[in-house]
Amino acid sequence: MQIKANLVFWGYFLILFSAQSAILKISPHIMHIKKQRLLTPGPTPLYPPALRAMMASDIHHRTEDFRNIYKSVLADLKQVMGTSNDVLLFAASGTGAMEASVSNLFSRGDKVIVCSAGKFGERWAEITKAYGLEVNILKSEYGDVVSAERVEAALAAAPDTKGVFVQASETSTGAAHDVRGMARAIAKTPAIFAVDAITGLGTMPLDIDGWSLDVVIGGSQKAFMVPPGVAFLSISPKAWKLAETATLPHYYFDLKKEKKNGDKGESSWTPSTALILALGEALTYVKQIGMANLIENAQMLARATRAAAKELGLELFAAGSPGSSVTAVKAPRGLDSGVIVKEFRSRFGAVIANGQGSMKGQIFRIAHLGYFDFADLFGVIAGLEIILHANGHPVKFGSGVAAVEQVYADAAVAQLAGTR
To answer: What does the pLDDT look like over 201-220, one tens digit per residue?
Structure first.
């Protein structure tokens, strides 16, 4: 009788579960108000005072008022990035600063090393090849990273290498490279180290001066919480020295010209006045909370997301070297990650990222950089639970959210203990 009763119970449970899943699947539009939420690794949510600052952009860029703003933004960038090196600004996406670091510092035929472990590593390879450099690509599979030991070995095999390029945070896969370990090997050689830190700044420690990072590239639409359109880079004395002998052509992205004009509080070309005003406001905020705390915020959110994914029976991508700018999660077997992305948008007005390149349809990515907090993450994971349930993946409602809450609670207890 007990066996029969159990069979009846689980039969009713399965019928209820199936019915609930079916209803959720065909009724994704039950909410009349859906706020748009950017949950991607760029663009990211905007810092409200930065958005308001853009309203004052009816200012001429060749006036003393704007020169003072421009100088202040450059000084604040140096402070926030933690460097005494020159910092330059461009009206461009981060890729513009990537290209500038190639076209200004190298000559055709120069030997360089590109670390490629994802879509953006491939971009370094494409840029360096486009300018006629002799490129040694150290390739790793998506989800993996290029080790510092491989870089050191490649430099030993080609001591006349002029430069090494890497992503600090490879957001196409959610992996983070060992920038410090690479820097330690590169600093012993004549090569310069160019780091795409567009999503690394504000999500992971990057000691530019202490680690001898020669070029570090950032972008406005990532951890700095303003719209896309401003790229910046720091450049070391070692890199400036290499620029003296570089012969590749460049015009708009001219580091020497930008340095000369920046010292006077001007950009070489018409700047994005609105975005620079916004960036100035965002940098004030970052200084207020502290860069270390901005990084810790991203790291806690990433840790909580990983815990939630595991609790929901999902497999992490790039599990061996996870970064904190974004968490990449494998879609359940038989479910295209694009379905999850679309349902976030249709059900909740939320925008998360699909996989890129060969990972499209296989992984989805949830961001943590910039203006994100735990309340955002509670909602994201609750939404994910509903979407997974509606698509046949077994879910105990609240289990993923509980995992996020536990990380938050543990951090709060640790913080309280540290203040006693």
So the answer is: 999 999 999 999 999 999 99
Measured between alpha carbons, how far is 353 from 327 in angstroms, rounded to an integer? Answer: 10
**Same domain as 300, residue 407:** yes
pLDDT at 13 over 80: no
Which amino acid is residue 101, in one-letter code? Answer: S
If you ran DSSP here, which 8-state letter would residue 231 be given? E
Strands 215-219 and 230-235: antiparallel
The beta strand positions in 111-207, using DSSP E, are 111-116, 134-139, 163-167, 169-170, 175-176, 192-196
Q: How many contiguous H segments (helices) and E segments (strands) does the chain have?
A: 14, 14
For helices 374-390 and 337-348, the axis angle rounded to 10 degrees is 110
pLDDT over threshold 70, residue 151:
yes
- Are residues 220 and 92 part of one domain? yes
Gap between the Cα atoms of 205 and 208, Å rounded? 9
Q: Kindly report the CATH number assigned to the domain that includes residue 41.
A: 3.90.1150.10
- Contacts of residue 27, Cβ cutoff 8 Å, sequence gap at least 6: none
